[in-house]
């Protein structure tokens, strides 16, 4: 067979879920999902089961990121197989329930796609987050979305890092996709951020509908930013931060950071420079929720991923 | 206007962390306490972390909003162990920095806040004729090159004034935005640091006998709050602040101007008859208070020259 006819045949994506409120203070996803639970007309597509779902209702009620522990780190094998006992943290109970409803994670019965809607205080714009560089369906979908959104930029963050990868709510599905749109403060709904997220989802669902209808998507490449390292704030012996993200780095997500560039500004006015040997592309710069996770920003490297042509497998 | 003689501003309080997730003030208070800044300045200053439990948890408040606990009624209500934490704390702060309305109260209380709204730096106070506060505002406006500085006035009598700054003989909240809650942005921190330093400089100069020339200050007086459009049954909000209004604090809003964009795509417009100045547009903590934005009237207030009265 010539490479022109090298098409990967993939299973139909029949069941799709849209999660909002994995973090109870990230308002775009919460608002969209609640709206679609009331009236799903906008998200309906031919031949597709689409379920909007509030993943952490107690955190949403309280308008806080989580109740006991971060739901978006809770989908570990240990947690998912923990016995049903009294005193389990709320989010661990919730993870098990979500795994029953939309999984089991890793099995043939799991949902085909889960979109997990997030906001960030970082100036990341519209970002799609992938967990695998070899998921052809997801690569073709983000390629489609990026083209449809142009000239509005959609960045793609790939977190395949063995230590920094985490057990996300969406990882229950065969094809997990994170949507991260910022900047937006926690507990705040900004119209432009809300509408961007809504538009990304529209294109995503259009892609799935087209795919399910038998359309062949030609080979493509996707520019991604691959997660490399987590950079913490300088801290004192009590663990308190002693510096802030430098004004030259603040809001410069996805822009190159080179050796010698300002990185932090201490409270007493001293500049701390980036000392890394290679150019990196920082992201999640000054995300509120990451102060407690010891992260001022993440470094990434640019990469181009290639994806085969895909088509729905014939039954 | 004739020059007015005013008493020395001998005792000053700088408070931060009144809301535990408004971090510029939290870090500024921590730095001042670390450096033992109090005692190194020519005026007597006390630096206070107002709500340490909320700061520890990085939340606005633990049980109830501390910055609504300073009315006469709340300050004089009986408290027990089961009272809300912030109510107990407000009475402690009143004992430390007040009592509100008495001769023992600190001369000036500066309470540090941040907002998610694009307000620049605002001095927020209950009086439009407090010459000390107005002169400090003028001084900051003159000296702060890159930050807009404005004077915001809530026309509420002292007994009903509910915020910490009402405890001092003179007082204001120094509110700086935009900054997300639970985040510290270096430009915001630097602006707050500069604002506090300039306030101290003014006080020292005033106390040493400098005559500050009168002039005028634009005062924004709060008129009303506007809530989000809500579903009549579920009370859930049905629109976001319109993109044309978002981040346009203190830009005049005319009747007919867009205010909200509903989730179904409809533009909802300002229906008032009078053009007013919006501020606190889309402050995160105000969703639960039913406030999408506040509206103010602006007027030019003439202020007299002031001079310290050392007698």
From TrEMBL, chain A:
Q: Which residues form a coiled coil?
A: none
Q: Known Pfam families for this protein?
A: AstE_AspA_cat, AstE_AspA_hybrid
Q: Where is the active site?
A: 180
Q: GO CC terms for this protein?
A: cytosol; nucleus
Q: In what residue span(s) does the AstE/AspA barrel-sandwich hybrid domain sit? A: 221-300
Q: Which residue ranges does the record assign to the Succinylglutamate desuccinylase/Aspartoacylase catalytic domain?
A: 14-208
Where it mainly occurs, coarsely classed, is cytoplasm
Name this polypeptide is given: Aspartoacylase
Gene this protein is translated from: LOC109092774
Task: Name where it's found.
Answer: Cytoplasm; Nucleus
Automatic annotation (TrEMBL), chain B:
The record ties this protein, via SUPFAM superfamilies, to: Zn-dependent exopeptidases (SSF53187)
Cofactor(s) of this protein: Zn(2+)
Known catalytic reactions: an N-acyl-aromatic L-alpha-amino acid + H2O = an aromatic L-alpha-amino acid + a carboxylate; an N-acetyl-L-cysteine-S-conjugate + H2O = an S-substituted L-cysteine + acetate
Ranges for domain Succinylglutamate desuccinylase/Aspartoacylase catalytic come to 10-202
Q: Name one Pfam family in it.
A: AstE_AspA_cat
- Gene3D superfamilies, alphabetized: 2.20.25.160, Zn peptidases
The AstE/AspA barrel-sandwich hybrid domain covers which part of the protein?
A: 217-298
E.C. code:
3.5.1.114
Membrane topology type: Peripheral membrane protein
Q: Where in the cell is it found?
A: Apical cell membrane; Cytoplasm
* Any one GO molecular-function label of the UniProt entry: hydrolase activity, acting on ester bonds
Q: What residue stretch is flagged as signal peptide?
A: none
Tell me how the cofactor is bound.
Answer: Binds 1 zinc ion per subunit.
Amino acids binding Zn(2+): 19, 22, 113
Query: Where are the active-site residues found?
Result: 175 (proton donor/acceptor)
Gene Ontology CC: apical plasma membrane; cytosol
InterPro entries, per the entry: AspA/AstE_fam (IPR050178), Aspartoacylase (IPR016708), AstE_AspA_cat (IPR055438), Aste_AspA_hybrid_dom (IPR007036)
In which broad location class does this protein mainly occur, judging by the first location in its UniProt entry?
Answer: membrane
Q: Which residues cross the membrane?
A: none
Thylakoid as a keyword?
Answer: no
UniProt KW keywords:
Cell membrane, Cytoplasm, Hydrolase, Membrane, Metal-binding, Zinc
Q: Which HAMAP family does this entry report, sorted A to Z?
A: Aspartoacylase
The UniProt family comment states: Belongs to the AspA/AstE family. Aspartoacylase subfamily.
Name listed for the protein in its UniProt record:
N-acyl-aromatic-L-amino acid amidohydrolase
Organism of origin: Cyprinus carpio (Common carp)
């Amino acid at each position: 067979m010539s490479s022109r006819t090298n098409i990967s045949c993939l299973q139909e994506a029949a069941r799709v879920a849209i999660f909002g409120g994995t973090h109870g203070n990230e308002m775009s996803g919460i608002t969209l999902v609640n709206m679609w639970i009331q009236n799903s007309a906008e998200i309906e597509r031919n031949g597709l089961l689409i379920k909007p779902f509030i993943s952490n209702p107690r955190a949403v009620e309280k308008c806080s990121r989580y109740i006991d522990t971060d739901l978006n780190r809770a989908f570990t094998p240990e947690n998912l197989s923990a016995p049903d006992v009294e005193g389990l943290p709320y989010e661990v109970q919730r993870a098990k329930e979500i795994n029953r409803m939309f999984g089991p994670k890793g099995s043939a019965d799991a949902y085909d796609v889960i979109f997990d809607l997030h906001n960030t205080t970082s100036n990341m714009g519209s970002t799609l987050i992938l967990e695998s560089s070899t998921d052809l369906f997801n690569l073709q979908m983000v390629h489609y979305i990026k083209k449809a959104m142009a000239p509005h930029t959609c960045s793609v963050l790939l977190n395949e890092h063995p230590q920094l990868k985490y057990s996300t709510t969406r990882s229950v599905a065969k094809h997990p996709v994170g949507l991260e749109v910022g900047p937006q403060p926690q507990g705040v709904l900004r119209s432009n951020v809300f509408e961007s997220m809504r538009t990304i989802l529209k294109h995503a669902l259009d892609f799935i509908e087209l795919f399910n209808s038998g359309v062949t998507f030609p080979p493509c490449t996707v520019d991604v930013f691959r997660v490399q390292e987590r950079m913490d704030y300088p801290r004192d012996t009590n663990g308190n931060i002693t510096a802030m993200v430098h004004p030259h780095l603040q809001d410069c997500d996805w822009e190159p950071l080179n050796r010698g560039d300002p990185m932090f500004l201490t409270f007493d006015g001293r500049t701390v420079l980036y000392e890394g040997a290679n150019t990196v592309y920082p992201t999640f710069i000054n995300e509120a929720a990451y102060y407690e996770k010891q992260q001022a920003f993440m470094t990434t490297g640019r990469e181009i991923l290639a994806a085969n042509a895909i088509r729905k497998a014939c039954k | 206007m004739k020059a007015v003689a005013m008493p020395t501003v001998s005792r000053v309080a700088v408070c931060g962390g009144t809301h535990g997730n408004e971090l510029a003030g939290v870090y500024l208070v921590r730095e001042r306490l670390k450096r033992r800044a109090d005692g190194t300045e020519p005026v007597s200053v006390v630096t206070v972390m107002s709500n340490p439990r909320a700061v520890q948890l990085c939340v606005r408040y633990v049980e109830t909003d501390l910055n609504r606990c300073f009315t006469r009624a709340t300050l004089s209500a009986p408290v027990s162990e089961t009272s809300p934490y912030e109510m107990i704390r407000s009475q402690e702060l009143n004992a430390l920095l007040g009592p509100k309305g008495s001769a023992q109260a600190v001369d000036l209380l500066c309470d540090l806040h941040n907002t998610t709204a694009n307000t620049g730096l605002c001095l927020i106070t209950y009086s439009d004729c407090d010459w000390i506060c107005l002169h400090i505002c003028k001084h900051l406006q003159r000296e702060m090159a890159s930050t807009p500085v404005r004077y915001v006035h809530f026309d509420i009598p002292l007994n009903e004034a509910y915020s910490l700054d009402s405890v001092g003989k003179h007082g204001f909240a120094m509110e700086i935005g935009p900054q997300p809650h639970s985040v510290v942005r270096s430009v915001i921190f630097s602006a707050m640091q500069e604002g506090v330093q300039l306030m101290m400089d003014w006080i020292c100069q005033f106390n040493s006998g400098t005559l500050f020339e009168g002039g005028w200050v634009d005062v924004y007086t709060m008129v009303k709050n506007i809530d989000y459009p809500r579903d009549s049954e579920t009370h859930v909000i049905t629109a976001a602040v319109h993109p044309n209004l978002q981040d346009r604090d203190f830009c005049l809003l005319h009747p007919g101007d867009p205010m909200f964009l509903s989730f179904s795509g409809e533009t909802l417009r300002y229906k008032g008859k009078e053009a007013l100045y919006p501020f606190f547009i889309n402050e995160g903590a105000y969703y639960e208070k039913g406030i999408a934005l506040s509206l103010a009237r602006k007027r030019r207030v003439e202020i007299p020259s002031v001079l310290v009265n050392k007698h």
